[in-house]
Specification:
It is a single chain. By secondary structure, the protein is mainly alpha-helical. It has a domain at 31-114 and 193-306. Helices cover 73% and strands 0% of the residues. Helix 3 runs antiparallel to helix 4 (97-120).
Length: 308
Amino acid sequence: MVAKSECDFEELVQSAYRHIVEEVGLDNVRPSFGLRFKDLQKAHDSIHEFMFLVSLLFPSQADRGVGWHKKSAFLTYHWEAFHHAHRSLIEALCAYYNAAFILLRSVLELVIKGAFWECLSHKEFRENSRVLDTDPQGRKIKEWLAEIFEVAPDVEEVLERISASIYDKVSTIVEDPSFRPPVKVIVRQLDQWGIFNPLPDPVTSIYDEIYGTLSADVHVVPDRTDIGKRMVAAPDEILEQKLLQSMLGEYANYLHQVMDLAIVVELNIMRDLVDRYNESRSNLRGRLDALEQLGLEHSLARAKELVK
């Protein structure tokens, strides 16, 4: 009786597994690669380059206080962005394009906000934040931090060593709209800090063109839903989970752009280590060929500047 029950349970589990595999659309992964293999391969490998580079930029024999904790506000979001990017790609390969684009906007926002909080953790950036000074929410965040430093002066020094500790200080206000600068303001401030160097006109190229397009998927604009996409590309099969070559190509292009931007941000956040340590500079120089082969135009340009 027990053996039969165990057998029935195993069959039930297998049946549930097969059902989920079918619903997830895993059978679409191989055909999707067949449609856009080269584009998808470059985009996928760019995700790994984003993760790999950051480990190379920390010198093995750094001075005391220059460990990963110093960049931990950014690295917290960096880790999340890496996994979201992978999950986004999987959704696209499975033909869930709307979900893929939604996750891709999340990747972009994670990179941008991780860089924002990282910079705000350090005095050199806080004291040179002209864009935040012109924004009501930006001013409130700076005033909040200034009040904390006044009550507990040691906090400022802690932030310099462990930047992620800023999340403890802003946890009670981070969801309050009156303390939440718009993404466009954050992009402008990061631009003022040089975090997008050498991208030309980041407000247009990042906020208007990439973030704006991806936001249409998030806000379920009719043409950006999966059914809306199929109505344009395959009107006779709008209710089927249809592979769309044009949409897969568009997705691969946006993923590649986002990862190029993400690596640019990563390099600029870590630029002090590259400037200071020969090992970091040498490791980055060793990745120039990979950046070129992956077609990461802006990342390659920034990396070349840093290793001169």
